[in-house]
Amino acid sequence: QVQLVESGGGLVQAGGSLRLSCAASESIFSIAIMGWYRQAPGKQRELVAQSTKGGTTTYADSVRGRFTISRDNAKNTVYLQMNSLKPEDTAVYYCKAQKFANYWGQGTQVTVSS
User: Fold this and answer.
1) How far apart are CA 82 and CA 18, in angstroms?
2) Contact (CB, 8 A) for 2 and 24
């Protein structure tokens, strides 16, 4: 079972930046897909970005060009660099590891003020 711990959320003004981290309890080298999702109040959880072990990255249209997902296999950590933040990016951000099953972290709150 993979355990995931997110960190790096907080309150930031519109136009600012944050970097989220997701630390895994085991090597992420062999994990097929690592992803970031978010859930705003009253909305469904949605994919923000994901990275395959082969190096393919995918982004939601709403964040493409502003967010960057990256893996550090040596640190068993996945990052989400978020730039040019907007109030509509406000949500709880979750990390997911897709191995033989899906594993989720507890989430970290990101609040962007206008």
Assistant:
1) 5
2) yes
From the CB of residue 105, how many other CB atoms can be counted at a distance below 10 Å? 21
DSSP 7-43: E--EEEETT--EEEEEEESS-STT-SEEEEEEE-TTS
pLDDT per residue as tens digits for the range 16-53: 999 999 999 999 988 999 999 999 999 999 999 999 99
User: Taking a C-beta distance cutoff of 8 angstroms, is the pair 3, 24 a contact?
Assistant: yes
Q: Tens digit of pLDDT for each residue in 8-18?
A: 999 999 999 99
pLDDT tens sequence across 60-109: 999 999 999 999 999 999 999 999 999 999 999 999 999 989 999 999 99
Please give the structure tokens belonging to residue 59.
Answer: 């982004």
Phi/psi of residue 87, nearest 5 degrees: -55, -35
Query: Nearest to residue 90, comparing CAs of 68, 113, 106?
Result: 113
Q: Rounded to the nearest 5°, which phi and psi values hold at 88?
A: -70, -5
Beta carbons of 3 and 104 less than 8 angstroms apart: no
Amino acid at 102: N
